[in-house]
Automatic annotation (TrEMBL), chain A:
It is found in: Cell membrane. The chain crosses the membrane at residues 6-23, 35-62, 68-87, 99-121, 133-152. GO terms for cellular component: plasma membrane. It is a multi-pass membrane protein. This is Rod shape-determining protein MreD. Keywords: Cell membrane, Cell shape, Membrane, Transmembrane, Transmembrane helix. Belongs to the MreD family. Pfam families: MreD. The keyword Hydrolase does not apply. It comes from the Bacteria. It comes from Sphaerisporangium rufum.
Automatic annotation (TrEMBL), chain B:
It comes from the Bacteria. One of its GO terms (cellular component) is plasma membrane. This is Cell shape-determining protein MreC. Belongs to the MreC family. One of its GO terms (biological process) is regulation of cell shape. Residues 288-311 have a biased composition (Pro residues). InterPro entries: Cell/Rod_1, Cell/Rod_MreC_2, MreC, MreC_beta-barrel_core. It comes from Sphaerisporangium rufum. Residues 312-330 have a biased composition (Low complexity). The lineage of its organism: Bacteria, Bacillati, Actinomycetota, Actinomycetes, Streptosporangiales. Residues 281-353 are annotated as: Disordered. It holds the Pfam family MreC. The keyword NADP does not apply.
């Protein structure tokens, strides 16, 4: 119960930090990190497909009403729901390759958002504009993801173990 | 297997729900069913965003101070030079205090656009992760702000209000690609449309499309807003930007230029919402004084020693500010106010850059 309330408060805090601080930083390249997307991706990685999809939907719905919003309601609910579900499913199927999953999700999420915007005729979601901002968006999000991974592995007290490989011919050391 | 099936079912339900939401909201975009929801969320998050901004502001100011240190050094030098020049001008001005008072009152009068403005602070921003350029300001319907009102700051046009909550309201910026504002070239009546270019321009350029293909566009000309009916959503006469380059579009019906906005959209802080438009269009009166022609090495005004030496008034600034009675100071006849006036006009032109 306490954990759930803490998670809700953390989500709200991330959204407010995103619109009050991160989006107002004049970062080079035109893009900026999307903390909300990274939060959904990390949650889905930890919890799996269904919680990831549901959380993505709820978070997206709140993002749609978060002021200042000038887009159609439900747009980000759709995007984050799909992203959360797919990331969670990938984490269930291939639990070892979470870094690859995050990279793919970060690459695909802006394209998905632009695609949904384009489907409903949003004039802001042109491909030319998107492709110019896309590299910097992906880069900033990957930096955030790397920081998150580092923080989790650093503070959870659990070093990433390298399993002993039965090599047969020579004794493999644990912890290279 | 059953788990996968359940997962697919959940995903399907969520997708259908979001598609239904999108459809409902898209079809009734102006009087949407979700306006109460948005209003409630606006009140709730508006308070939180306001508190967050208050917390963060000192840190942000400090970071900006550190980042702007090299430029601050340069500005201190510039200000020092300007200070010396102003002090000299002051000495000149004391000679003819009455004329100075008259001139400054006239300048003040012409500078007044006659708008009634509610001041507000930017408390949150939507940036690239949403493809829209919108900010939240801390003035709402309690302060008299309504939807479709013009927003400006000390430099020029900022955008328009799209939604006014009780305490906060959302403003779509001029750089948003979906926003379009009527605009007019300074001086003549070439009318066009200003569009934003979105995040890849980083708020540094906007597109100005002139409706007349034979219009004479040149870099350095300035744009003011054209105004809409009853001043909604844009009032007339607000400075928009300076044309930076003109695109060659042979054979097209419109001409396209890219302009640098007067407003620095990356560092918006205090803005004003126009709650009542002036009765008359202020035309070009609100434009800042034109910078001296070659901007970097400003031609030094002649040393103050030979005071009665007549200086031909430099073209633009003194034509606007220096000769209120329309008599260009005749070169060669050392009338006492002649050089005095042209000097002041020149300094007036350089304060702005």
């Amino acid at each position: 119960m306490i954990r759930a309330m803490a998670a809700v408060l953390l989500g709200a805090l991330i959204m407010i930090v995103q619109v009050t601080i991160v989006n107002r930083l004049p970062l080079p390249g035109g893009g900026g990190p999307d903390l909300i997307l990274m939060g959904v991706v990390m949650f889905a990685l930890a919890r799996g497909a269904v919680p990831g999809g549901v959380t993505g939907f709820v978070v997206g719905l709140v993002t749609d009403v978060l002021p200042p919003a000038a887009h159609v309601m439900g747009q980000y609910a759709l995007v984050f729901c799909v992203v959360g579900f797919l990331v969670g499913r990938a984490a269930e199927r291939a639990p070892g390759s979470s870094a690859l999953t995050v990279i793919l999700a970060v690459l695909a999420a802006p394209l998905l958002a632009a695609g949904v915007g384009g489907l409903i005729g949003d004039p802001r979601a042109g491909w030319g504009a998107l492709l110019r901002v896309w590299p910097s968006l992906v880069m900033y999000n990957l930096v955030v993801a790397a920081l998150a991974f580092w923080a989790v592995s650093r503070f959870s007290g659990e070093r990433p173990r390298r399993a002993a490989v039965p090599t047969g011919s020579y004794p493999a050391r644990r912890r290279v | 297997m059953r788990d996968t099936r359940r997962a697919r079912f959940v995903l399907g339900v969520l997708l259908v729900v979001s598609l239904v939401l999108i459809t409902i909201d898209h079809r009734r975009h102006h009087d949407s069913l979700f306006d109460p929801v948005r209003g409630a969320a606006g009140s709730l998050f508006g308070v939180a965003e306001r508190a967050g901004t208050e917390l963060v502001r000192p840190v942000a100011d400090f970071a900006r101070m550190i980042g702007g240190a090299p430029e601050a050094g340069r500005r201190i030098d510039g200000l020092r030079a300007e200070n010396a020049r102003l002090r000299r001008d002051l000495a000149v001005a004391t000679l003819d205090r009455h004329r100075s008072a008259e001139l400054s009152s006239m300048l003040g009068l012409s500078g007044l656009g006659g708008y009634r403005v509610v001041a507000a602070q930017v408390i949150a921003r939507r940036g690239v992760p949403g493809f829209e350029d919108a900010v939240e300001i801390d003035a709402g319907s309690a302060d008299g702000v309504r939807a479709e009102m013009t927003v400006l700051n000390g430099d020029g046009l900022v955008g328009r209000v799209v939604r006014a909550g009780p305490m906060t309201s959302a403003v779509v910026l001029l750089t948003d690609p979906a926003s379009a504002a009527g605009a007019r070239l300074e001086g003549n009546n070439e009318v066009g449309v200003v569009n934003g270019l979105g995040p890849e321009a980083e708020g540094r350029l906007i597109r100005f499309r002139v409706l007349d293909s034979a219009a004479s566009l040149a870099a350095g000309r300035r744009i003011v807003s054209f105004g809409s009916q009853e001043g909604r959503p844009y009032v007339a006469g607000v400075p928009v930007g300076t044309i930076e380059r003109v695109e060659a579009t042979p054979g097209e019906l419109t001409r396209v230029a890219y302009a640098r906005p007067f407003v620095d959209f990356t560092a918006l802080d205090v803005v004003g919402v126009v709650v009542a438009a002036p009765r008359r269009d202020p035309r070009d009166a609100m434009l800042p004084p034109r910078p001296a022609r070659p901007p970097a090495p400003a031609p030094k005004p002649p040393a103050p020693a030979p005071r009665p030496a007549p200086v031909a008034p430099s073209a633009a600034p003194s034509a606007r500010a220096g000769t209120p009675d329309g008599t260009p100071a005749p070169a060669g006849t050392p009338t006492p106010p002649g050089p005095d006036r042209s000097e002041r006009g020149r300094s007036e032109g350089q304060v702005g850059d």
